[in-house]
Amino acid sequence: MNVLKYPNNSNFFKASMPFVLYRVTDEIFPPGFLSLPSSSEFYLVNERRTWAEAQRHCRENSSDLASVHHDGDSRRLLMAAGRSGDSGRSAWIGLFDESTVWKLSEDASLEVNTDSLDWMKEQPNNFAGSQHCLYITQTGILNDFFCSTPFHFICYDDRNASRYVLVEVKLSWSEAQAYCRGRHTDLMSLRSREEQEDVRRSLKWAGNVWVGLYRDPWASWSDGSASSFSDWKATQPDNQGRDRQCAAVLLHTGKWVDENCREEKPFFCFKGEVQTTLHPHVEILKSLKSLLLILQQRRS
Fold this sequence. Notes:
Elements: H1 10-14, E1 39-49, H2 51-61, E2 64-65, H3 71-84, E3 90-96, E4 101-104, E5 107-113, E6 133-136, E7 142-145, E8 151-156, E9 164-171, H4 173-183, E10 186-187, H5 193-202, E11 209-214, E12 220-221, E13 244-250, E14 256-260, E15 265-274, H6 280-299
Parallel strand pairs: 8-11
Antiparallel strand pairs: 1-15, 2-15, 3-12, 3-13, 4-5, 4-11, 6-7, 6-11, 8-9, 8-10, 13-14
């Protein structure tokens, strides 16, 4: 271990000199960077299973399907694939997309299963893997669509006797949400077919209008963990064929692709924990901290 040595001269610590106050922020190092939590140890199972079968196998024999939370995990996946000698194209990991679960704009902690609502035929289909917001048509049925598209929208106002406010200004979904929150309560949410009918009776509009239901795509891991990290292949996920709701990793690149969950593939499980090594910048910061403590002690 390298030890910093300081001049054996009391004047060194009394000297006045300019200095830089260094504050570590999330912009410089991502959250958790300095502590670097331990990571899962992965192994590849060379048996072809559907995603659900793979999940069951991992839970019965180790912990769960692999969760990938940072670049280090991605590298370990490739190392595990190399050790196995597997020549397959891709293998399941624990990421999946819950296409039937939607969140309410007014309370993101609440989730709504929209199966009971009145949908346009063959919807929602998450076309191109990018339709994560809902509009209601002038006939009162729902469709999922690209959130950046400008539409009129319906606000909910709990201070207004009519409750529903039709805004005939075309905005994207997120802009409509901000407008409703600034001037009313929030975008109108739908929890049931009864509420859907109530809106249809209460308002008349032309075209399509945004409502306050949206989806967090690819936010669910089999083991229940949460992570904002992603490593998708370019153009992925695209939901080609409208039935790709499980993620697999390409064994030659480590990039992710969306696949049909019923396909049979090898898969990654995880077990135990392995300790990651500290980033060299962490050692530098620890040395700087030691120096500051010495200076503080000399000053006192």
